[in-house]
């Protein structure tokens, strides 16, 4: 079919008005959605240089369309928000009807009786007849009836063509009600060339036959609900609802009863002992998800809750639209008082008065229908918790950090029958190497220490005075209370546990809520009526605490766009282009396809709204959103459990039991004993997930960002080698390396750490971040890893640097092979020149700033062990040393000579030796100055100069009289050298460079000094 001459004439005669009154760019999305124009045609219209050219091109393109397309065009105009545009659309419709000499419903030329009773009857009895005959043309019929019918969604949700046709017809009727008539259905059928179906409607097929067909066709419930959403697309685009979801994560050591507490919380009263939450050797569910109503704890179907929330938001939106001033205006236009007191200049024709009265009646009727609907539908105002239960085994900890959010509640479960200093007991009674305190420290550091939130909330419970907490909040809950019964007071034991925990982690005390809730977990009499009643009381107490915090959280109950919830339902469908891993541009396309955003959504503001939506869905646990700085592109994981499985498959290297190749098996053996994993081992572990190469790289980038793995960069000469990665968590406690003290010298230890009042504990994750960062600095194939320890070979100076995790500190040692007497002097001089301890400390502080942003102001210090009390002391500078280089212990006040200070070149006498060495070797100041002048950022010049001791007037003079940045830096350094003369120490300059953040320049200068020595 082509555009008729009649419609062409209408377009030509109205060209000036089309160019003047129609917002063509705003209509392009609707015209593309209703398939009037193709994607290429839309693009050509957008590329036009001027409005006149665009409208001319539009007219040229429209001449190739059909009369049905013209109908879609004037319907789009009538649906526009501008009243002038709506009127123009109505005019085009009137002209088309008049041109064909048809009655108002445009049906006489199609041999349809406008006046007959059949023409205005309910069309639903004929839907099955149409559906049986329409076949693949159901989508064309759908768009002809109403382009807003969600035909794409229907196509994906329904299986047969017949079901799709019925769903589309029902959607049309649901939207238009009595406006959907038999005549309009027949008109649409004629327009798409199905005269055979149109003539059958109202003829010999009676309603009994139609009913027989209808029993054979069913529509999925989910389809009906989603049709409702699309019917109210404006509410989805513009409406708002409350943020009523909170992620609640169960954390704590293994085998303490986390899963049991979660099941009790969601109203499973008769709970028996559950198995450990999926050990890593299995391939089943890795993380347990549940949704419950916070008010009473009843378990909920998450997607049903989402549907209710969206439906309620739509109802709210409809009610607000009805309550708008326009409704009152229409009411006032028809009231007798307004009619009698009308201004003389406001003379309306009878036709206009009649039209306004009709509109008033329509709005009244709509309002009554809405009230009837609200009586049947109670809007859901409840808050819901999304429960997460991770496995507690230590090997799991590394995989948790990517899922942690500061906007979640955490429930830390512990076994009150075990002392906090006892070794963790796995199922079967086997003891782990770590204590309960160690595991709890790991959890709290991951949750609290790695959060960047300092938000405080005020909480009032049980009519007591308000208490202040800092986010994220961790609620302590105990289990195994029956195992201490009769021995000691359970509440006193709980308080003692809390006290010891706060004593060890003082900076986290504002985040911890001591609930004093203790559950029993023993098998004996576990499900007696008395035990069940007691358990219910404990459950009610825990629910009340959760409710209290939920109501105080700043991000809860704030209005959010309704489309965010709708997007959550789409992203979980795994259909219609939804994948487990997507880019934000792909997410944006999905949102546009479903009408949640406009096609021309290119502004920064619109993109930010999309980012805000993804961040919100990340916080409530709907998806995982990784920003550009992590993966070089914004990545969205729509299936959380899928990513957990991938992480853990790589951590434990699943698949080794099915390998038969001796070569690959050797790769696995190397991985388990050295922590080094080849890319082909990773590929084998990932084979069950069927990832494309791009998605593999994205997953590896995420893991590398969180230091779960670290790629070993190979030399150019060996670029053909298989890619290798370090996976520290593969290493088990029995993987160690020994030192032959007869052949290898090992220095005394220096310790790095923070004051416990600031950063009380260094987690394994932070330690392995440091391991990875140092690997990038000293990258070679000779790094050795063992349990919580790394040994790096420093090739240029022929010694090893050993970094260990020692409770809440990082231990540093160096070692070298004893070949001759000169070897000791060579390594000692290298340590003095390179000062690796300061590089490692700078790297460590940067990691703390990145991973634990709330502690950026904390000072990192070096410590040595007191030979008297065995405690660590940090007053090591030469100002703190006496004339013999001895220091005073901060704990016991004992003055002692530390071998570590001597071996690391930090004793006062060593500093003097270094100055003498520097003068004897006549350090090339000019070369060092040249390096600094090239590398120093102009923005840091003033700060650099002031730290060198230059006065402001001297800095201003240099700045004004020098043209380039290079010259300015060089003159600053020359002035500093002149001021100090023979006392000028280039090492002081490198220290200042590090202090102002220019570590690269400092390292290059130090390497130059090392080569001179």
Keywords:
1013 residues, alpha+beta, 29 strands, seven-stranded mixed sheet, eight-stranded antiparallel sheet, single chain, Rossmann fold, Death Domain, Fas
- Count of alpha/pi helices: 43
Our count of domains comes out at 8
Instruction: Give the percentage of residues in beta strands.
Output: 5-15%
- Helicity range: 40-55%
User: Care to count the β-strands?
Assistant: 29
Q: Class by helix and strand content?
A: alpha+beta
CATH architectural designation of the largest domain: 3-Layer(aba) Sandwich
Q: What value does the Rg take, in angstroms?
A: 37 Å
Tell me the span between the first and last alpha carbons. 89 Å
* Average pLDDT figure: 76
Biggest beta sheet attributes? 8 strands, antiparallel
Uncertain spans:
101-118, 204-231, 272-276, 278-284, 322-376, 910-923
CATH class of the largest domain: Alpha Beta
Write down the CATH topology of the largest domain.
Answer: Rossmann fold
Name the CATH superfamily classification of the largest domain.
P-loop containing nucleotide triphosphate hydrolases
Biased composition (Basic and acidic residues): 339-352
Region (Disordered): 328-352
Domain Death: 123-205, 943-1009
GO molecular function, one term: ATP hydrolysis activity
């Amino acid at each position: 079919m082509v555009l008729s001459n009649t419609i062409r004439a209408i377009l030509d005669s109205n060209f000036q008005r089309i160019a003047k009154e129609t917002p063509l760019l705003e209509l392009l999305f609707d015209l593309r959605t209703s398939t009037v124009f193709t994607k290429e045609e839309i693009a050509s219209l957008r590329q036009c240089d001027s409005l006149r050219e665009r409208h001319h091109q539009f007219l040229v393109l429209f001449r190739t369309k059909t009369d049905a397309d013209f109908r879609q065009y004037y319907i789009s105009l009538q649906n526009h928000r501008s009243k002038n545009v709506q009127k123009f659309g109505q005019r085009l419709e009137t002209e088309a009807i008049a041109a064909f000499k048809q009655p108002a419903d445009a049906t006489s030329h199609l041999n349809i009786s406008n006046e007959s009773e059949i023409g205005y009857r309910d069309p639903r009895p004929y839907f099955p007849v149409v559906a049986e005959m329409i076949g693949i043309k159901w989508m064309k019929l759908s768009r002809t009836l109403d382009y807003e019918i969600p035909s794409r969604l229907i196509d994906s949700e329904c299986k047969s063509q017949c079901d799709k046709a019925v769903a589309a017809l029902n959607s049309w009727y649901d939207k238009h009600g009595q406006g959907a008539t038999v005549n309009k259905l027949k008109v649409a059928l004629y327009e798409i060339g199905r005269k055979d179906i149109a003539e059958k409607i109202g003829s010999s097929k009676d309603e009994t036959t139609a009913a027989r067909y209808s029993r054979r066709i069913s529509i999925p419930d989910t389809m009906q609900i989603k049709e409702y959403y699309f019917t109210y697309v404006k509410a989805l685009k513009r409406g708002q609802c409350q943020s009523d979801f909170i992620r609640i994560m169960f954390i704590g050591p293994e085998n303490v009863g986390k899963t049991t507490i979660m099941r009790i919380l969601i109203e499973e009263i008769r709970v028996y002992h559950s198995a450990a939450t999926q050990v890593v050797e299995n391939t089943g569910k890795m993380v347990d998800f549940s949704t419950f109503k916070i008010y009473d704890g009843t378990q909920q179907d998450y997607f049903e809750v989402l549907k209710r929330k969206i439906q309620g938001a739509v109802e709210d939106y409809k009610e607000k639209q009805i309550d708008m001033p326009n409704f009152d205006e229409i009411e006032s236009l028809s009231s007798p008082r307004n009619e009698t007191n009308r201004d003389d200049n406001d003379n309306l024709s009878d036709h206009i008065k009649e039209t306004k009265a009709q509109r008033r009646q329509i709005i009244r009727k709509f309002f009554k229908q809405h009230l009837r609907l609200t009586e049947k539908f109670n809007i859901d105002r409840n808050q819901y918790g999304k429960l997460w239960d991770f496995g507690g085994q230590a090997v799991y900890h590394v995989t948790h950090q990517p899922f942690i959010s500061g906007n979640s509640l955490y429930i830390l479960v512990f076994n009150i029958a075990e002392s906090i200093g006892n070794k963790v007991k796995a199922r079967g009674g086997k003891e782990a190497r770590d204590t309960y305190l160690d595991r709890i420290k790991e959890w709290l550091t991951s949750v609290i220490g790695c959060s960047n939130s300092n938000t405080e909330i005020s909480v009032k419970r049980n009519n007591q005075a308000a208490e202040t907490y800092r986010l994220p909040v961790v609620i302590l809950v105990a289990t195994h209370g029956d195992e201490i019964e009769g021995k000691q007071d359970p509440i006193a034991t709980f308080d003692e546990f809390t006290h010891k925990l706060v004593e060890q982690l003082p900076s986290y005390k504002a985040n911890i809520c001591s609930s004093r809730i203790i559950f029993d977990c023993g098998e004996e009499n576990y499900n007696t009526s008395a035990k069940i009643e007691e358990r219910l009381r404990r459950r009610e107490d825990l629910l009340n605490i959760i409710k209290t915090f939920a109501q105080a959280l700043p991000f809860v109950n704030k209005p959010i766009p309704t489309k965010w919830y709708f997007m959550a339902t789409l992203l979980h469908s795994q259909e219609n282009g939804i994948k487990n891993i997507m880019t934000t541009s792909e997410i944006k396309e999905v949102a546009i396809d479903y009408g949640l955003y406009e096609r021309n959504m290119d502004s920064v503001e619109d993109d930010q709204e999309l980012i805000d939506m993804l961040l919100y869905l990340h916080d409530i646990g709907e998806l995982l959103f990784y920003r550009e700085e992590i993966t070089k592109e914004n990545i969205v994981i729509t299936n959380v459990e899928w990513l957990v499985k991938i992480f853990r498959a790589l951590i434990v290297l699943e698949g080794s039991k099915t390998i038969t190749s001796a070569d690959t098996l050797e790769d696995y053996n190397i991985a388990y004993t050295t922590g080094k994993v080849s890319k082909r081992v990773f590929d084998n572990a990932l084979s069950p997930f069927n990832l494309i190469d791009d998605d593999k790289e994205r997953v590896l980038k995420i893991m590398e960002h969180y230091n779960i793995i670290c790629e070993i960069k190979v030399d150019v000469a060996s670029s053909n080698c298989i890619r290798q990665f370090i996976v520290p968590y593969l290493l088990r406690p029995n993987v160690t390396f020994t030192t032959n003290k007869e052949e290898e010298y090992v220095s005394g230890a220096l310790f790095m750490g923070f004051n416990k009042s600031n950063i009380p504990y260094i987690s394994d994750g932070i330690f392995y971040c440091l391991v990875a960062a140092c690997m990038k600095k000293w990258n070679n194939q000779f790094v050795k890893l063992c349990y919580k320890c790394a040994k790096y070979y420093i090739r240029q100076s022929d010694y090893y640097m050993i970094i260990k995790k020692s409770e809440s500190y990082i231990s540093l040692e160096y070692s070298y092979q004893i070949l001759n007497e000169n070897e000791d002097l060579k390594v000692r001089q290298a340590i003095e020149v390179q000062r690796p301890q300061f590089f490692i400390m700078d790297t460590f502080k940067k990691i703390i700033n990145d991973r634990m942003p709330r502690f950026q102001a904390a000072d990192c210090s070096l410590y040595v062990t007191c030979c008297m009390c065995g405690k660590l002391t940090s007053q090591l500078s030469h100002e703190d040393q006496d004339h013999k280089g001895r220091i005073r212990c901060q704990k016991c006040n004992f003055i002692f000579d530390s071998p570590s200070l001597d071996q690391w070149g930090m004793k006062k006498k060593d500093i003097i030796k270094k100055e003498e060495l520097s003068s004897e070797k006549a350090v090339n100041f000019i070369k060092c100055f040249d390096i600094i002048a090239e590398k120093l950022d102009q923005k840091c010049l003033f700060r650099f100069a002031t730290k060198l001791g230059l006065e402001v007037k001297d800095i201003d003079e240099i700045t004004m009289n020098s043209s380039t940045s290079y010259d300015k830096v060089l003159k600053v350094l020359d002035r500093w050298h002149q001021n100090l003369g023979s006392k000028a120490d280039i090492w002081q300059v490198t220290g200042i460079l590090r202090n102002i953040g220019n570590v690269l320049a400092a390292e290059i200068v130090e390497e130059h000094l090392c080569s001179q020595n």
